[in-house]
Amino acid sequence: MKDFTFSFPTQVIFGRGAERRVGELAAPYGPNALVLYGSQRVRRSGLLDRLEAELKARGLHVTELGGIQENPLLSKAEEGAALARENHCTLILAVGGGSVIDTAKAVSLGAVSSRPLWDLYQGKAKAEGALPIGVVLTTAATASEANCVSVLRHDTLQTKAALTEPLTCPRFALMNPELTYSLPPRQTASCAVDIFSHAFERYFHKEQRGTLRSRMCAAVMCTVIQELPRALAQPDNYDARSQLMWAATVAHSNMLGFEGDYACHALSHVLTGELGLPHGVALGILMTAWCKFMLTDEADAIAEFSTLVWQVPPCLSQIQTAQNGISAFQDFLCLTGLPVTLREAGFGDVSVERLALRALPGRTGSLGGNFRPLDYDAVFRLLQLALG
After folding, report:
1. DSSP per residue over 142-202, as a string?
2. Rounded distance, CA 141 to CA 280, Å?
């Protein structure tokens, strides 16, 4: 096990009615709150009005910015930063899931930065500070409510960039699983696969292998396998929704350990940027393709993953065990209504070469590496497998 430093600065309030404490927790960061949200779902449900009433009861002035979309845009974050400066905001409250929270993180940085926001995400400038962030979680997937990572998409370049900035770790996260009941089935499934992927990426790390880490990662993946079908069959099943919500936070807040391979995540950013696929949908396609790609040279590792996570009985051949595990993975995706290949997702005529060049411009560099680095040729072959 490697040496590490771990801190978890976010105060988590988990359970029924957690959002009712928003005024109490936001008050110390007053007097002006910028409330960010995505779709009108939070307004139609009455949640937004209830939250704003709680804030106003504590003496906070509220400014709103809605319309934040999946794969959040740089332009929206810049709009939010300008609004925060104009209204002298002292707190950013994100009401939503990963896209809204990531935007809140960008807004919190941009509101106090003298440099263009994209420069921070490109590593050309350092953060000069950040406004405090609070979260009311309505979608469980990214763990952005309890980590310091955010991802933005450039409107013109159509490229995505991730930033890890400790100043943006939310101060508090209010997590009521009941707020996820109204998520559409496909979004529920896509979010759950995103949860699975964060444990998957950490599991496949050759220098971080160990009994505790491997089994903790497997526990998160097995939780998704067991609880997602329950949530899809009964959208208001509190136990299923609560298991998924906490699994999401555990999976990507370094509770499982640090680092991971993340080749699939890097390629997912390409697919979401180029094709508009939801992040979780892209990850499901890529993780199964990645397992197929690794099958020949890494059969033992894929077979172990198959037996530990997918409960596949060991066969005489490790390759056969691994293949059975990949089949179980694909069957699970089909069961939840998600595509297994790009062709099934409606992108059968996409240029694999164009996608590969987007991933590795100039055919140089590599993706991943903590399990096995993927050069251009490897990325090309993996994307061919993903195409189907």
Report:
1. S-GGGSSEEEEE-TTT--EEEEE-GGGS-SEEEE-GGGGTTS-HHHHHHHHHHHHHHHHHH
2. 9
CB-count burial class (<10 Å; 0-12, 13-18, 19+) for 311:
exposed
Which residues sit opposite 202 in a β-bridge? none
| DSSP letters spanning 36-52 | EE-STHHHHTTHHHHHH
Reading the block at residue 200, the tokens are 């998957």
pLDDT of residue 209: 80
Which residues, 6 or more positions from 346, have their beta carbon under 8 angstroms from its beta carbon?
A: none
Structure tokens that stand for 213 in this block: 């880490």
348, burial (CB in 10 Å: exposed 0-12, middle 13-18, buried 19+): exposed
8 A C-beta contact, residue 167 and residue 149: no
Residue carrying the six token digits 């109204």: 182
CA distances, 75 to each of 22, 179, 271 (Å): 28, 28, 20
Residue type, 336: T
Q: How confident is the model at residue 1 (pLDDT cuts 50, 70, 90)?
A: confident
